[in-house]
Design goal:
Blueprint (H helix, E strand, L loop, with lengths): L1 H12 L10 H20 L1 E10 L2 E12 L2 E8 L6 E4 L3 E6 L4 E6 L21 E11 L2 E10 L6 E7 L5 E7 L5 E13 L17 E4 L5 E3 L5 E3 L7 E8 L8 E7 L4 E8 L9 E5 L2 E8 L2 E7 L3 H10 E3 L2
Parallel strand pairs: 6-12
Antiparallel strand pairs: 1-2, 1-11, 2-3, 3-4, 4-5, 5-6, 7-8, 8-9, 9-10, 10-11, 13-15, 14-21, 15-16, 16-17, 17-20, 18-19, 19-20
Amino acid sequence: MWQGLWLLGLWLVVVPALAENGAGNSDAEARLLLDKMTEAGRTLDYDGVFVYRRNQHMDAMRIIHKSEAGRERERLISLSGPAREVIRNDESVTCIFPDDHSVRVERSRPYQLLSSQFPSSVDKLSDSYVFRVAGSGRTAGRDARIVEIVPRDDFRYGYRLWLDEKSHLLLKSELLNEDGRPIEQFMFTHLDIVDSIPDSLLEPTINGTDYSWYENPDDSHEPASEDDWQPGWLPAGFSVTDRSHELLADSPRPVHHMVVSDGLALVSVFIERLSEQDAARVGPSKLGAVHAFARKTDDYQIMVVGEVPAITVRKVADAVSQQP
């Protein structure tokens, strides 16, 4: 059960996000640059290699992204560690694990790797973050503008971003903790921005005929009633953006799932009814910048997962309650 919750929570929250602080003209310029970055990540065709560093662990991956007629397609290939391949389009996400000879197909979620979960206009984030332009830099052989995003409280992280001066594509990002120190880093080491990506580059390397296939049914994600569970406390600027019942791969029962967000940071709340045989998990846990906190109330297990400080997931978890 908990492995499934971690994977789902990580899919929702582990996306290279974006930056920290600002005022005056710098604030306005930073907002404009971030709006352009969001648009570039969704509309450009590119083929590149990036590294993702968390704690002392580093992964290298190739990403191929194509945008055509308002629709996006994307392919990720691991270049280090276990062999993995991910094919994403607007309808589904297909994860291929050659070492296990298995394929898992999930419905596509509205979160992307490089264009982030930023809203169409960053003005919506001004109550929660301050923006500033922090100079210039260079990464992946490209000149970049550095933009910082600073949270206005201690319940969310900050970011530092490097945006390509010509295309405005995100080249590098650092997730910053409460002390302003990097705790995660994403960075392109090679990047080609092209007019059009051939469809052949978006096809998987294997045909999967001799693989085991696991596919979530269409009813594995169903809307949930607002009258069921409620967050009793959320940080300023956060609100519930999605409710559903999720049928996770390693759980025999649907899990009530709430997503809460301030427009940038995402937190997932999972509630599952326990059977007499189920052992409840209680207390904090951590994987890189992702914190989780679990508690038991009556016959239910509540687990909150998010790429936010530990205090945030704990306070959210402690305040979740079932409506009478």
